[in-house]
Design goal:
Layout (H helix, E strand, L loop, with lengths): L43 E2 L5 E5 L4 H6 L6 H12 L7 E5 L6 E4 L2 E4 L4 H18 L3 E5 L1 H8 L6 H4 L4 E3 L2 E6 L2 H6 L3 H22 L3
Parallel strand pairs: 2-3, 2-6, 6-8
Antiparallel strand pairs: 1-3, 4-5, 7-8
The structure holds uracil.
The site of uracil has 12 residues, from helix 2.
Length: 211
């Protein structure tokens, strides 16, 4: 596991070039997020999986580990996958944005929602993953992933919630981000959100099986 970069507000100097066509994530300077992230976090999982899950961006633990969904939200996602009858080994998991965006609060690096410009810049990598993996179904975990997948900054989770949306030749389903099922203020909302995520994953499994 890498050590986090020191929490300087500006990060190391360097060029940012939105038109760059980098060969590797480590070389990516398409937006500014590389400056303060420990490393880029690529998608991982089964190659050519029938189901692809797309989150928002790596969190603190993912930034250090270099792997997606390994922190608390990842643990909840693992449980939801198991409850939906899906093995994590059978899916491909990635994020709309590949670098951790954060702000310092005390000694903690707190998640900051990526801006549309950062999501747009990172579409370069998400498109590559979609092209390579050719999933039968893509599950957007939360609004940021949905906006990226539909290439629509105004897409609303409620409108696409657990519904099949066809976009750019792909089948997209949307549900809550796992963090919402962890952090919603009351137990009833958290339980409902968790059940909704399991229902969407079951729906994805049915669609992916072609039945
Ligand atoms: N939240 C995300 O959206 N992605 C991760 O990889 C971890 C937490």
């Amino acid at each position: 596991m890498k050590k986090p970069k020191p929490p300087s507000p500006a990060g190391p100097p360097g060029e940012t070039d939105p038109s760059q066509q980098p060969e590797s994530l480590d070389a990516c300077r398409r937006c500014d997020l590389w400056r303060r992230a420990t490393q880029a976090v690529p998608g991982e999982g089964k190659r050519r999986a029938r189901i692809m899950l797309v989150g928002e961006q790596p969190g603190d633990g993912e930034d250090l580990a270099g792997k997606p969904f390994v922190g608390p939200a990842g643990k909840l996602l693992d449980r939801a996958l198991a409850d939906a009858g899906i093995s994590r080994d059978d899916v491909f998991i990635t994020n709309a944005v590949k670098h951790f965006k954060w702000e310092l609060r005390g000694k903690r690096r707190l998640h900051k929602t990526p801006g549309q410009r950062e999501v747009q810049a990172c579409m370069y990598w998400l498109e590559r993953e979609l092209e390579q993996e050719q999933p039968a179904v893509v599950v957007a975990l939360g609004a940021t992933a949905l906006k990226a997948l539909l290439d629509d900054a105004h897409a609303r989770l409620q409108e696409h919630f657990n519904k099949v949306t066809r976009h750019a030749g792909r089948t997209v389903l949307a549900t809550w981000h796992p963090s919402y099922a962890l952090r919603a203020p009351d137990t009833a909302t958290r339980e409902r959100a968790y059940a909704d995520i399991v229902a969407a994953l079951k729906h994805a499994r049915t669609l992916a099986s072609g039945k």
